[in-house]
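Listing 4. Sequential folding, example run.
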Amino acid sequence: MSSLQISLAIIGGLVLAGVVAYNAWLTSKSAPRTAREWPQDAPGTEAGQQGPRAFVDTDLPEDRLAQRIEPVLDDAPVLAEGGTVNPLSGATSEQQLALVAPVAPSVAPVSVVPPAVPVTLNHVITAPEKRPGLDALIDVITPLLLENQVSGDALLAAMPGTRRVGSKPFAVEAQCEETGEWETPRPGQRYRVLQAGVQLANRAGPLNDIEFSEFVVKAQAYADAVGANPDFPDMRAEVARARELDAFASGHDAQLGFTLRARRAAWSPGYLTQNAAQIGFVAGVLPGRMVLPGSQGGKAPILSLTFDSQAAMAEDPEQTALREVALALEVTHVPRSEQPFQRMRQAAIALAEAMDGVITDDAGQLLSIETMDSIGADLESLYDALDSRDLSAGSPQARRLFS
């Protein structure tokens, strides 16, 4: 073999090795970022204890990892109600929105790292809220006049099989003689005063003539079964009231959504949930959904964070790639006192910064500071309008009307 052939063979081998190495590097860079745990002998961990769990972005250099994760066990701040720490509570609007523009994100040190939250169906921290009673503001209410006391058992046994009239909820309530409050009939109790009702409007539209007629039939059948005499209101007046309420609701319903998109490397479900857990999100009932609980237990969550449910249920979620997640706020379902839009804005910025992403609308357009400020001003006007109708955001009446 001549020297020329040997040289060509060597060059060919080097080129082949370079191609293999480049492909391996490209594969590693395009793999989704995954969540990791601290080793058992991590600094600040005593012998026999497991180290604090936190996410480790394997795409960052060591000096930035040291800034990113800084466990503190002795001087940790007092946790807020619900066991969460808000790392953005002292940041200005300019600092919080630094990631909206497509530039390389700055990384702020994190002094306290909450435990990782896996994708699970068991992390539900709020109890179901008690069903609100009938309200003349948003319901047609028909008194059911009783001649004698009736037991709660008999009232429950006579309940119709479905508690809906068309697309509207139907309810029967009894007045407790001890407290004077209206309640769903209870076994072992006796009642003298009853009422039936149907909701005037919801997101399916206003109560119409057909639905009102169905309500009359259902309420009459129930009254006959328990020995009561119903006193129905005028249908035309109630249908007109339903249309007026629906017109108001249609003009004041608001559901906000931000989309977080990955700049470069995709995210695994575990990587996403660990970052979301750092700002207070917990796993919801459905796979691919996390929620930010409110300050009061039993209330609706402030925000929801959703991603591909198939990715959350994959056999190996860490090998599943997510390139976008949705952050949503039901404006009419969350009290104004919770400052939901400010917290949504902070959460979006924190997640975008931690995961190297950008904040966009549904169409993929970057959201600027001016756009977010404009949305916030519009929401204040919306809150004022809802308050003026006694349908304040987060109230039981508003949550029923906007459902």
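-- end of first protein; second protein begins --
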Amino acid sequence: MAQRPLLLIDAPSLYFRAYFGVPESSARAADGSPVNAVRGFLDMLATLVRTRRPDRMVCALDFDWRPQWRVALLPSYKTHRLAPESDGGEVVPDTLGPQVPVILDVLAAIGIPVVGADGYEADDVLGTLATTEPAPVEVVSGDRDLFQLVDDDRPVRLLYVGRGVAKLEDCDDAAVRTRYGVPADRYADFAALRGDPSDGLPGVPGVGEKTAARLIDRYGSVQGILAALDAPGSGFAPGLRAKLDGAREYLAVAPTVVRVARDVPLGSIATALPAAPVDPDRLLELAERWNLASPVRRLVDALAGHP
């Protein structure tokens, strides 16, 4: 019998998608408060539990969505997502912010652990758990940076939800190679070259995905590319050489910014997925207060069905 996976949930990725995927008008509490993100998030979890059949689950949070150690290396990191007149806060829709504590309350009542770490993003928590927890592991996210976690040997897969949980893409190393032309363990270097506007990574001007993949295929890493630039007879076309030379300062730090941390101090985590809510009275109270009876029931039913 195949081992059941540990399902690692990128909670911010999913609840942002839930917020924009479920209309506010269709999901409100009795007092009129929107609960569309809560409903959508719980339904995503129910679908994942029902279809992936995990026996363990952890939801990861951003305790620091823009860590200073990344900003120190690359000041442009996520600057476009900074909320105006805030002390480093992220732009979050006004009606999403109040829903996050409700999500956390429901998860606590069910008994699904939520984990974060000061100075680190959810990606780093996911990377650490994917590296240190017993496999098999399935990471659920719409963040492309997490393709770097895919590892056929452990195994670790990325369930990529860029088009939603109903259309998730189950990605192994071959899928990453097909999609980007590089193996998963080279994705961070590839992304540094290509850039990622959603994270404020400029990339190397004039170097797109195909050129980035070709460079990684030939030289193995950004470090290998920089070393080759200084080697006689390395064979770079003059235009490409000029582009890479002009981006040396950026390339010296960008892979570290993109690379997910795998050694975040998290302590011991009870990852076992409960077959029934650990605090049913509290869960009932939350379901009634926030008009969540249907999504809560769907998630509870999915949990009850897992072996």
